[in-house]
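thought: fold this chain, then report.
action: predict
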Amino acid sequence: MDIPISSRDFRCLQLACVALGLVAGSIIIGVSVSKAAAAVGGIFIGASGLGILILAYPFLKARFNLDHILPTIGSLRIHPHPAPEHGEGRSSTNDNKEGARSSLSTVSRTLEKLKPGARAAGEG
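observation:
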């Protein structure tokens, strides 16, 4: 069953939901004793803020002519820089393997020092 609704009624309903969310969030934060309850109130207020942005977007778009800004934001791309070349015939995979071996040996030495039998032998 479809019920026709005008654009004005829809905007009023959106505004009422935003106002209800702000009031509910403020009340929840105001009476909360725990931080978890205050976080729930913050979620209500954050959702209401998003509702305000959705409600105000057509007006902001018309006022600031966002059609010129948004396409340029959408065309931004991240271009990573290539890794530096390793000289003297060494490859980056060998460097990674050597780094992993040295860190593994450091961890192994640390674990050997932490063993109970190693301390007793070292002190005697």
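thought: worth noting. Helices lie at 7-31, 35-64, 70-74, 92-114, 116-123.
final: tokens above.
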